[in-house]
Amino acid sequence: MNATLPTAEALRAALADLLDGLPPKQAAQAVERLIASYRGTTPTDAPVLRDRSDVAAYAAYRMPATFEAVRSCLAALREAAPDWTPATHTDVGGGTGAASWAVAGAWEGPRTTVLDWAEPALALGRELAAASGSPGLRAAAWERARIGKELELAPTDLVTVSYVLKELRPEDRGALVDAAAAAGQAVVIVEPGTPDGYERVIEARDRLIAAGLSVAAPCPHDGACPIERGKDWCHFSARVSRSSLHRQVKGGSLSHEDEKFSYVVATRFPVLPAAARVVRRPQIRKGQVLLELCTRDDGLERATVTKRHGELYRAARDIAWGDAWPPGQS
Ligand SMILES: C[S@@+](CC[C@H](N)C(=O)[O-])C[C@H]1O[C@@H](n2cnc3c(N)ncnc32)[C@H](O)[C@@H]1O
Asked: Please, how many CA atoms are within 13 Å of residue 29, restricted to the half-sphere of its CB?
């Protein structure tokens, strides 16, 4: 990959510099306040990210995780559409730019516009982007916009909506997904990997399909989700290195944590969705690997891949939750 494409390490370094100016205790307190307000009665009528210390705390605490989640979704899109490269990108509710960092890391050169109603988030996002070393990210436009029925999105190749639907009223969620579907050639929607995050993703998926888009990932088809509602939820996991701020707020000494997320990627252009996707962490036993799959033709399935399967068994030992199965076959 090109050295100018921003990485998780570059993001971590930019965030560490940012926090240098913020006393650790103040940063930890700001994170705790944010966690409490995110647990409270969202959606709100005004931005939760009110000032620079809120935004710095949000960025340091959450950005590495939302960046990794979006990165996984973009990897699935790239796998389904290996020849497609976006020239323009709109990051709606982009905040400090986690999804834009992920997009700039996936393709060279898309022109990004970040939209958000929280001016302090945009200002800090611009600062972080300036430190990224990525020409694409440094050239991004950071614009104030309120998501709602009046939101109009200019035509763009790629739209990202990362960890935003949860903050909106149901009617604004629908309006945003419709606007994204009308504006974008590809739309990536990511939510926390919780039962309600999954519900919002499924609602968005239905709207994207109704608007004429096709699902590129994670689903192997555009049909109904085979998961029985209320019994389970489709979600995935991305590994994130913990920062010292994380350790301070959450305690413990683990060097990483797993960010759980639900997502859908849909496109207006033809794609090759996976034949099946691994929807649980694979279980590796002696001489066999147990896979839980969502398949194109047979819904949810369990597969046992044993040594007798030769090449496939070796592939199964390397496969991860969220990967397409079998590898390299769409
Ligand atoms: C949880 S943050 C996610 C930020 C970023 N997309 C990410 O993945 O890290 C949600 C963002 O949505 C923005 N937001 C929430 N409601 C909004 C609205 N009605 N109009 C514009 N932006 C909104 C917030 O200001 C915040 O930056």
From this structure: 6
Whether the CB-CB separation of 251 and 244 falls below 8 Å is answered with: no
The vertex-192 CA angle with 189 and 193, nearest 5°, equals: 105
Distance 215 CA to ligand 1 centre (A): 24
CA angle 262, 177, 200 (to 5 degrees): 35
Q: Is the pLDDT of residue 3 over 70?
A: no
| CA gap 293, 278 in Å, rounded | 5
pLDDT, tens digit (0-9, with 9 covering 90-100), for 190-241? 999 999 999 999 999 999 999 999 999 999 999 999 999 889 999 999 999 8
Where would I find the H helices in the chain? Answer: 8-20, 24-39, 52-80, 98-106, 119-130, 135-138, 170-183, 195-210, 244-250, 311-318
**pTM passes above 0.90:** yes
Pocket test for ligand 1, best of 41, 164, 189 (most atoms within 8 A of CB): 164
